[in-house]
Specification:
Layout (H helix, E strand, L loop, with lengths): L8 H5 L1 H18 L14 H12 L5 H6 L1 H9 L6 H17 L6 H21 L27
Keywords: Heme, Iron, Metal-binding, Transport
GO molecular function: heme binding; metal ion binding; oxygen binding
Pfam families: Bac_globin
Length: 156
Amino acid sequence: MPEQSIPSLYDWLGGIDALNRLTDRFYQHVKADPLLGPVFEHMGADHPGHVATFLAEVLGGPDDYSKQHGGHPHMVQQHLNRHLSQEKRRRWVGLLLETADELGMPDDPEFRSALVGYLEWGSRLAVINSQPGVAVDPHAPMPRWGWGEVKGPYTG
């Protein structure tokens, strides 16, 4: 019996087109959200596409974010001194998952478990990196997420 190939999370969710639909619709919701709207009031029109490209790379797709924008250090830089709270983080994660449901993205337990795992991990790092005094590690590797990733504790 041939060994079955396991798709990346990126492939499973439908690639960059699906991520662009997700981030475009998500940031429409964000703009209208009373808690998150003010955080993103100065967001440029290209922001949803940048986030889609970042998520694509993290979830096993092409490394376009690293090539075009500077990888994880660049993403960390975007969160510096934003003073994000756990309340905003929880709303961001919840709204993204609601948008995924709205768009009919895969909702099988394995995929959603992996997606929620990344969103929890990544959004908690964003809160940490948004507080005063954080320095960007210019060599920080791009996170890569799969079907059952467990990351060690964040040590700065």
